[in-house]
Protein backbone atom coordinates (compact mmCIF):
# COMPACT_ATOMS: atom_id res chain seq x y z
CA UNK A 1 0.00 0.00 0.00
CA UNK A 2 1.46 3.32 -1.05
CA UNK A 3 1.72 6.15 1.45
CA UNK A 4 1.06 9.75 0.46
CA UNK A 5 3.24 12.36 2.12
CA UNK A 6 5.37 12.06 5.23
CA UNK A 7 4.33 11.63 8.83
CA UNK A 8 4.81 15.08 10.41
CA UNK A 9 7.32 15.12 13.26
CA UNK A 10 6.46 17.02 16.43
CA UNK A 11 9.03 18.84 18.58
CA UNK A 12 7.37 20.26 21.70
CA UNK A 13 10.15 22.87 22.08
CA UNK A 14 9.86 24.48 18.65
CA UNK A 15 6.70 23.32 16.88
CA UNK A 16 3.15 24.57 17.32
CA UNK A 17 0.85 21.80 18.49
CA UNK A 18 -2.28 23.13 16.77
CA UNK A 19 -0.45 23.23 13.43
CA UNK A 20 0.95 19.72 13.96
CA UNK A 21 -2.51 18.26 14.66
CA UNK A 22 -3.86 19.91 11.48
CA UNK A 23 -0.99 18.40 9.42
CA UNK A 24 -1.58 15.00 10.99
CA UNK A 25 -5.29 15.20 10.21
CA UNK A 26 -4.53 15.89 6.53
CA UNK A 27 -2.08 12.98 6.46
CA UNK A 28 -4.82 10.67 7.71
CA UNK A 29 -7.23 11.90 5.02
CA UNK A 30 -4.65 11.50 2.25
CA UNK A 31 -3.99 7.90 3.25
CA UNK A 32 -7.60 6.87 3.88
CA UNK A 33 -7.26 6.43 7.63
CA UNK A 34 -10.69 7.08 9.14
CA UNK A 35 -13.29 5.61 11.48
CA UNK A 36 -14.03 2.86 8.97
CA UNK A 37 -10.47 1.66 8.29
CA UNK A 38 -9.32 2.42 11.87
CA UNK A 39 -12.31 1.74 14.11
CA UNK A 40 -10.40 1.70 17.39
CA UNK A 41 -8.09 4.53 16.24
CA UNK A 42 -5.11 2.37 17.11
CA UNK A 43 -3.29 3.22 13.89
CA UNK A 44 -3.84 6.92 14.40
CA UNK A 45 -2.49 6.69 17.94
CA UNK A 46 0.57 4.80 16.75
CA UNK A 47 1.27 7.33 14.00
CA UNK A 48 0.85 10.22 16.44
CA UNK A 49 3.24 8.73 19.02
CA UNK A 50 5.74 7.56 16.40
CA UNK A 51 5.95 11.09 14.99
CA UNK A 52 7.07 12.56 18.32
CA UNK A 53 10.64 13.36 19.27
CA UNK A 54 11.83 11.91 22.59
CA UNK A 55 11.17 15.11 24.56
CA UNK A 56 7.67 15.30 23.13
CA UNK A 57 6.94 11.65 23.91
CA UNK A 58 8.30 12.06 27.44
CA UNK A 59 6.06 15.09 27.99
CA UNK A 60 3.04 13.13 26.71
CA UNK A 61 3.84 10.24 29.00
CA UNK A 62 4.11 12.55 32.02
CA UNK A 63 0.84 14.30 31.25
CA UNK A 64 -1.01 10.95 30.94
CA UNK A 65 0.45 9.37 34.09
CA UNK A 66 -0.55 6.98 35.70
CA UNK A 67 -1.78 5.77 32.32
CA UNK A 68 0.66 5.08 29.49
CA UNK A 69 0.35 6.62 26.01
CA UNK A 70 -0.04 3.15 24.47
CA UNK A 71 -3.04 2.34 26.68
CA UNK A 72 -4.78 5.68 26.21
CA UNK A 73 -7.33 6.41 23.50
CA UNK A 74 -6.22 8.63 20.61
CA UNK A 75 -8.87 11.26 21.37
CA UNK A 76 -7.79 11.45 25.03
CA UNK A 77 -4.15 11.99 24.04
CA UNK A 78 -5.07 14.80 21.65
CA UNK A 79 -7.41 16.44 24.20
CA UNK A 80 -4.73 16.26 26.90
CA UNK A 81 -2.10 17.85 24.68
CA UNK A 82 -4.65 20.48 23.53
CA UNK A 83 -5.16 21.51 27.13
CA UNK A 84 -1.42 21.68 27.74
CA UNK A 85 -0.28 23.54 24.60
CA UNK A 86 -3.38 25.58 23.87
CA UNK A 87 -5.02 26.53 27.19
CA UNK A 88 -8.18 28.61 27.21
CA UNK A 89 -7.30 32.21 26.46
CA UNK A 90 -8.73 35.41 27.84
CA UNK A 91 -10.71 36.95 24.99
CA UNK A 92 -10.13 40.49 26.22
CA UNK A 93 -6.40 39.91 26.32
CA UNK A 94 -6.46 38.58 22.75
CA UNK A 95 -8.53 41.55 21.59
CA UNK A 96 -6.06 43.90 23.25
CA UNK A 97 -3.25 42.31 21.24
CA UNK A 98 -5.33 42.60 18.08
CA UNK A 99 -6.26 46.25 18.63
CA UNK A 100 -2.66 47.27 19.32
CA UNK A 101 -1.27 45.54 16.22
CA UNK A 102 0.53 47.78 13.72
CA UNK A 103 2.31 47.09 10.46
CA UNK A 104 6.00 46.43 10.89
CA UNK A 105 8.20 48.44 8.48
CA UNK A 106 9.87 45.23 7.30
CA UNK A 107 6.70 43.29 6.46
CA UNK A 108 4.66 43.61 3.30
CA UNK A 109 1.00 44.58 3.16
CA UNK A 110 0.02 40.97 2.46
CA UNK A 111 2.04 39.70 5.45
CA UNK A 112 0.48 42.37 7.68
CA UNK A 113 -3.05 41.34 6.64
CA UNK A 114 -2.25 37.66 7.26
CA UNK A 115 -0.88 38.45 10.74
CA UNK A 116 -4.08 40.34 11.61
CA UNK A 117 -6.19 37.35 10.59
CA UNK A 118 -4.11 35.15 12.87
CA UNK A 119 -4.56 37.51 15.81
CA UNK A 120 -8.30 37.73 15.18
CA UNK A 121 -8.73 33.94 15.29
CA UNK A 122 -8.88 33.97 19.13
CA UNK A 123 -10.95 37.15 19.51
CA UNK A 124 -14.44 35.74 18.85
CA UNK A 125 -15.54 38.73 16.76
CA UNK A 126 -18.36 36.77 15.18
CA UNK A 127 -20.26 38.70 12.49
CA UNK A 128 -18.13 41.79 13.20
CA UNK A 129 -14.93 40.03 12.02
CA UNK A 130 -14.73 41.72 8.62
CA UNK A 131 -15.29 45.19 10.05
CA UNK A 132 -12.71 44.67 12.82
CA UNK A 133 -10.10 43.34 10.40
CA UNK A 134 -10.60 46.23 7.97
CA UNK A 135 -10.50 48.89 10.70
CA UNK A 136 -7.35 47.46 12.30
CA UNK A 137 -5.66 47.08 8.91
CA UNK A 138 -6.27 50.72 7.99
CA UNK A 139 -5.47 52.22 11.40
CA UNK A 140 -2.29 50.17 11.80
CA UNK A 141 -0.68 51.12 8.49
CA UNK A 142 2.73 52.77 8.68
CA UNK A 143 2.28 54.56 5.35
CA UNK A 144 0.62 57.96 5.66
CA UNK A 145 -0.14 57.94 1.92
CA UNK A 146 -1.96 54.60 2.03
CA UNK A 147 -3.78 55.50 5.24
CA UNK A 148 -4.88 58.86 3.85
CA UNK A 149 -6.16 57.26 0.65
CA UNK A 150 -8.15 54.65 2.58
CA UNK A 151 -9.58 57.32 4.91
CA UNK A 152 -11.40 58.74 1.88
CA UNK A 153 -13.20 55.44 1.30
CA UNK A 154 -16.69 54.77 2.66
CA UNK A 155 -16.14 52.67 5.82
CA UNK A 156 -19.51 50.99 5.33
CA UNK A 157 -18.47 49.68 1.92
CA UNK A 158 -14.75 49.08 2.42
CA UNK A 159 -13.72 45.44 2.94
CA UNK A 160 -10.31 44.04 3.89
CA UNK A 161 -9.54 42.68 0.41
CA UNK A 162 -10.28 46.06 -1.18
CA UNK A 163 -8.23 47.89 1.46
CA UNK A 164 -5.35 45.48 0.87
CA UNK A 165 -5.54 46.05 -2.89
CA UNK A 166 -5.42 49.85 -2.50
CA UNK A 167 -2.59 49.70 0.05
CA UNK A 168 -0.53 47.40 -2.20
CA UNK A 169 -1.01 49.80 -5.14
CA UNK A 170 0.22 52.74 -3.04
CA UNK A 171 3.15 50.66 -1.75
CA UNK A 172 4.11 49.77 -5.33
CA UNK A 173 3.88 53.42 -6.43
CA UNK A 174 6.08 54.48 -3.51
CA UNK A 175 8.72 51.95 -4.54
CA UNK A 176 8.73 53.38 -8.07
CA UNK A 177 9.11 56.93 -6.77
CA UNK A 178 11.81 55.83 -4.33
CA UNK A 179 13.74 54.13 -7.14
CA UNK A 180 13.38 57.27 -9.24
CA UNK A 181 14.67 59.45 -6.40
CA UNK A 182 17.66 57.22 -5.76
CA UNK A 183 18.63 57.40 -9.43
CA UNK A 184 18.27 61.16 -9.54
CA UNK A 185 21.28 62.90 -11.07
CA UNK A 186 22.11 66.48 -10.16
CA UNK A 187 23.81 68.27 -13.03
CA UNK A 188 26.67 70.68 -12.56
CA UNK A 189 27.52 72.91 -15.47
CA UNK A 190 30.54 71.30 -17.19
CA UNK A 191 33.78 73.26 -17.19
CA UNK A 192 35.35 72.82 -20.59
CA UNK A 193 38.98 73.59 -21.30
CA UNK A 194 40.56 73.55 -24.71
CA UNK A 195 44.16 72.69 -25.39
CA UNK A 196 44.94 76.37 -25.90
CA UNK A 197 43.56 77.17 -22.42
CA UNK A 198 45.53 74.35 -20.82
CA UNK A 199 48.71 75.66 -22.39
CA UNK A 200 47.89 79.17 -21.14
CA UNK A 201 47.34 77.80 -17.66
CA UNK A 202 50.62 75.92 -17.71
CA UNK A 203 52.44 79.12 -18.67
CA UNK A 204 50.84 81.13 -15.86
CA UNK A 205 47.73 82.38 -17.63
CA UNK A 206 44.20 82.27 -16.21
CA UNK A 207 41.91 79.30 -16.76
CA UNK A 208 38.14 79.37 -16.68
CA UNK A 209 35.28 81.36 -18.13
CA UNK A 210 37.18 83.76 -20.42
CA UNK A 211 38.47 82.66 -23.77
CA UNK A 212 41.63 84.33 -25.02
CA UNK A 213 41.82 86.84 -22.21
CA UNK A 214 38.93 89.09 -23.19
CA UNK A 215 35.73 89.84 -21.34
CA UNK A 216 33.04 87.29 -22.06
CA UNK A 217 30.30 89.87 -22.11
CA UNK A 218 29.99 89.68 -25.89
CA UNK A 219 31.48 86.22 -26.39
CA UNK A 220 29.55 83.82 -28.58
CA UNK A 221 28.68 80.35 -27.44
CA UNK A 222 30.41 77.33 -28.97
CA UNK A 223 28.14 75.87 -31.65
CA UNK A 224 29.06 72.30 -30.58
CA UNK A 225 28.62 72.34 -26.81
CA UNK A 226 27.00 75.72 -26.11
CA UNK A 227 29.64 76.89 -23.60
CA UNK A 228 31.12 80.42 -23.66
CA UNK A 229 34.65 79.40 -22.60
CA UNK A 230 35.82 78.95 -26.22
CA UNK A 231 34.64 79.17 -29.81
CA UNK A 232 33.83 76.36 -32.23
CA UNK A 233 37.30 76.26 -33.82
CA UNK A 234 38.85 75.17 -30.53
CA UNK A 235 36.60 72.13 -30.18
CA UNK A 236 38.78 70.08 -32.51
CA UNK A 237 41.46 70.14 -29.80
CA UNK A 238 39.23 69.48 -26.79
CA UNK A 239 40.30 66.47 -24.71
CA UNK A 240 37.91 64.44 -22.54
CA UNK A 241 34.94 66.80 -22.66
CA UNK A 242 32.46 66.00 -19.84
CA UNK A 243 28.99 65.45 -21.33
CA UNK A 244 25.95 65.39 -19.08
CA UNK A 245 23.88 63.59 -21.70
CA UNK A 246 26.52 60.87 -22.01
CA UNK A 247 26.50 60.61 -18.21
CA UNK A 248 22.73 60.03 -18.27
CA UNK A 249 23.11 57.29 -20.88
CA UNK A 250 25.95 55.62 -18.96
CA UNK A 251 23.90 55.71 -15.75
CA UNK A 252 21.01 53.89 -17.45
CA UNK A 253 18.51 56.75 -17.13
CA UNK A 254 15.69 55.92 -19.59
CA UNK A 255 15.51 58.14 -22.67
CA UNK A 256 12.64 58.04 -25.19
CA UNK A 257 15.06 56.93 -27.94
CA UNK A 258 18.71 56.18 -28.52
CA UNK A 259 21.10 59.12 -28.32
CA UNK A 260 21.73 59.07 -32.07
CA UNK A 261 18.01 59.10 -32.85
CA UNK A 262 17.47 61.86 -30.30
CA UNK A 263 20.14 64.03 -31.95
CA UNK A 264 18.66 63.46 -35.42
CA UNK A 265 15.17 64.31 -34.13
CA UNK A 266 16.31 67.68 -32.79
CA UNK A 267 17.55 68.74 -36.21
CA UNK A 268 14.26 67.69 -37.83
CA UNK A 269 12.00 69.34 -35.24
CA UNK A 270 10.52 72.50 -36.78
CA UNK A 271 10.61 74.31 -33.42
CA UNK A 272 13.74 72.96 -31.74
CA UNK A 273 15.99 73.12 -34.79
CA UNK A 274 15.87 76.96 -34.99
CA UNK A 275 16.06 77.18 -31.17
CA UNK A 276 19.32 75.22 -31.22
CA UNK A 277 20.69 77.59 -33.85
CA UNK A 278 19.73 80.60 -31.73
CA UNK A 279 21.28 79.01 -28.63
CA UNK A 280 24.60 78.27 -30.33
CA UNK A 281 24.78 81.60 -32.15
CA UNK A 282 22.53 84.40 -30.94
CA UNK A 283 18.86 85.12 -30.48
CA UNK A 284 17.12 87.58 -32.81
CA UNK A 285 15.27 90.53 -31.37
CA UNK A 286 11.92 89.05 -32.36
CA UNK A 287 10.84 85.42 -32.60
CA UNK A 288 7.62 83.71 -33.61
CA UNK A 289 4.96 83.10 -31.00
CA UNK A 290 5.75 79.36 -31.02
CA UNK A 291 9.32 80.08 -29.90
CA UNK A 292 8.48 82.63 -27.20
CA UNK A 293 8.53 80.01 -24.36
CA UNK A 294 12.10 79.11 -25.37
CA UNK A 295 13.08 82.75 -25.69
CA UNK A 296 11.93 83.48 -22.13
CA UNK A 297 14.30 80.85 -20.71
CA UNK A 298 17.13 81.36 -23.20
CA UNK A 299 19.71 81.85 -20.44
CA UNK A 300 19.02 78.31 -19.19
CA UNK A 301 19.29 76.66 -22.60
CA UNK A 302 22.45 75.08 -24.00
CA UNK A 303 23.45 72.27 -26.35
CA UNK A 304 25.15 69.19 -24.92
CA UNK A 305 26.37 66.50 -27.35
CA UNK A 306 23.83 67.60 -29.93
CA UNK A 307 20.95 67.57 -27.44
CA UNK A 308 19.10 70.70 -26.36
CA UNK A 309 19.05 71.03 -22.56
CA UNK A 310 17.39 73.35 -20.06
CA UNK A 311 19.52 73.14 -16.94
CA UNK A 312 19.65 69.42 -16.10
CA UNK A 313 16.52 68.59 -18.14
CA UNK A 314 16.31 67.43 -21.73
CA UNK A 315 14.10 69.63 -23.89
CA UNK A 316 11.86 66.93 -25.32
CA UNK A 317 11.31 66.89 -29.12
CA UNK A 318 7.70 67.04 -30.30
CA UNK A 319 7.53 63.46 -31.60
CA UNK A 320 8.46 61.97 -28.20
CA UNK A 321 6.23 64.07 -25.94
CA UNK A 322 3.22 61.75 -26.07
CA UNK A 323 5.40 58.76 -25.18
CA UNK A 324 6.91 60.66 -22.24
CA UNK A 325 3.43 61.52 -20.94
CA UNK A 326 2.36 57.88 -21.18
CA UNK A 327 5.43 56.77 -19.25
CA UNK A 328 4.79 59.34 -16.53
CA UNK A 329 1.16 58.24 -16.28
CA UNK A 330 1.81 54.48 -16.29
CA UNK A 331 2.17 54.18 -12.50
CA UNK A 332 -0.89 56.41 -11.75
CA UNK A 333 1.01 58.49 -9.21
CA UNK A 334 -1.26 61.52 -9.42
CA UNK A 335 -0.63 64.94 -10.91
CA UNK A 336 1.75 66.18 -8.19
CA UNK A 337 4.11 63.19 -8.35
CA UNK A 338 4.01 63.16 -12.14
CA UNK A 339 5.09 66.80 -12.25
CA UNK A 340 7.85 66.15 -9.72
CA UNK A 341 9.32 63.33 -11.82
CA UNK A 342 8.98 65.33 -15.04
CA UNK A 343 10.80 68.32 -13.55
CA UNK A 344 13.74 66.09 -12.71
CA UNK A 345 14.15 64.69 -16.20
CA UNK A 346 12.64 66.64 -19.08
CA UNK A 347 10.84 69.81 -20.15
CA UNK A 348 8.92 71.31 -23.01
CA UNK A 349 6.48 74.25 -23.16
CA UNK A 350 3.12 73.25 -21.68
CA UNK A 351 4.23 69.98 -20.08
CA UNK A 352 2.50 70.88 -16.79
CA UNK A 353 -0.81 71.49 -18.59
CA UNK A 354 -0.50 68.22 -20.51
CA UNK A 355 0.09 66.31 -17.25
CA UNK A 356 -2.91 67.99 -15.62
CA UNK A 357 -5.16 67.14 -18.59
CA UNK A 358 -4.04 63.51 -18.60
CA UNK A 359 -4.50 63.11 -14.84
CA UNK A 360 -7.93 64.78 -14.92
CA UNK A 361 -9.18 62.02 -17.25
CA UNK A 362 -7.94 59.21 -14.99
CA UNK A 363 -10.07 58.12 -12.03
CA UNK A 364 -7.13 56.59 -10.17
CA UNK A 365 -5.02 59.74 -10.49
CA UNK A 366 -7.90 61.99 -9.42
CA UNK A 367 -8.35 59.98 -6.21
CA UNK A 368 -4.75 60.62 -5.13
Short note summarizing the structure:
This protein has 368 residues and is mainly alpha-helical. The chain is 49% helix and 4% strand. This is RNA-directed DNA polymerase.
Report on this model:
The structure is a single chain. The chain folds into four domains: 17-85, no CATH class; 91-182, no CATH class; 195-237, no CATH class; 244-366, no CATH class. A hairpin with a 2-residue loop joins strand 2 and strand 3. The chain has a four-stranded mixed sheet with strand order 1-2-3-4. It has helices at residues 17-30, 42-50, 54-64, 74-85, 91-99, 109-120, 129-139, 144-151, 160-182, 195-202, 244-250, 259-268, 272-280, 292-296, 321-329, 335-345, 351-360, 363-366; strands at 301-304, 307-310, 313-315, 346-347. Residues 181-218, 223-227 and 234-242 have low confidence and may be disordered. It has 368 residues and is mainly alpha-helical. It is an enzyme of class 2 (transferase). GO terms for molecular function: RNA-directed DNA polymerase activity. InterPro entries: Integrase_H2C2, Retrovirus_Pol_polyprotein. It holds the Pfam family Integrase_H2C2. Residues 205-217 have a biased composition (Gly residues).
State the main characteristics:
4-stranded mixed beta sheet, about 375 residues, 4 domains, mainly alpha, about 50% helix, about 5% strand
Largest sheet: spatial strand order: 1-2-3-4
- Assembly type of the chains comes to single chain
Low-pLDDT segments: 181-218, 223-227, 234-242
| Count of helix runs | 18
What class would the helix/strand composition place it in? Answer: mainly alpha
Amino acid sequence: MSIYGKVPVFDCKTDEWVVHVAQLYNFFIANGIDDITDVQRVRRRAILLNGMLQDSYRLTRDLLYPNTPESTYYKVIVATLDGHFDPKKCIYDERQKFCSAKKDPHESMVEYAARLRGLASACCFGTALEMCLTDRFVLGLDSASARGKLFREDPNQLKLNKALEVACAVESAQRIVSASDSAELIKSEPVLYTNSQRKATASGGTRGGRARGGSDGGALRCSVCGARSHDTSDMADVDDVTSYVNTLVAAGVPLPASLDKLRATFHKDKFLSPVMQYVTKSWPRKVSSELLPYNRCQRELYVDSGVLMRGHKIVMPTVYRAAVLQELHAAHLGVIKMKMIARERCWYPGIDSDIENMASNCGRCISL
